[in-house]
Amino acid sequence: MAARTVYTKKELEDLRKRLVEERDELQRQLTTIEETSFAASQSDMSGEVSFDEENADAGTFTFERERDLSIENNVRDLMRKIDRALARMDGGTYGVCSRCGKPIEKARMKALPYVDLCIKDAQAQTRR
Ligand SMILES: [Zn+2]
Predict the structure, then answer these.
(1) Which helix (H) or strand (E) holds 67?
(2) What is the model's pTM?
(3) 98 Cα to the center of ligand 1, angstroms
């Protein structure tokens, strides 16, 4: 934990704004997913969904719910990353690689403001 953030106040403000907006958007997505699966389980119980037309319908139904779940997990994962990025901003270590302690490439931070690994370490992690 050597390096401190290399960002100016202005840059941090812009990035923070993006992170907060992204987080709000993810929260909205999560709410939509939850409402959709709630509605789905409701119609399940009331028997509105008919499984008469082959069991293909049931298969699709399950598939859609599983897909929603995996989207939901991705969204939650991303939200956690954003929260950590915001915490690092508060702690003054934003943009510093959590593995090697060197500053993360600025272009990378501007493309993906929530990452906490430099390109080299991110690639090393993917390979494992
Ligand atoms: Zn690194």
Answers:
(1) helix 56-91
(2) 0.77
(3) 7
Lowest mean pLDDT among 5-19, 43-57, 96-110: 43-57
Contacts of 113 (CB under 8 A, 6+ apart): 15, 18, 19, 22, 85
Mean pLDDT of the chain: 86
pLDDT of res. 89: 94
* Separation of CA 80 and ligand 1 centre (Å): 20
Q: How far is the CA of 85 from the centre of ligand 1 (A)?
A: 15
The residues near 64 (Cβ < 8 Å, ≥ 6 apart) are 40
Q: How close is the Cα of 123 to the center of ligand 1, in Å? A: 10
The pLDDT of residue 50: 52
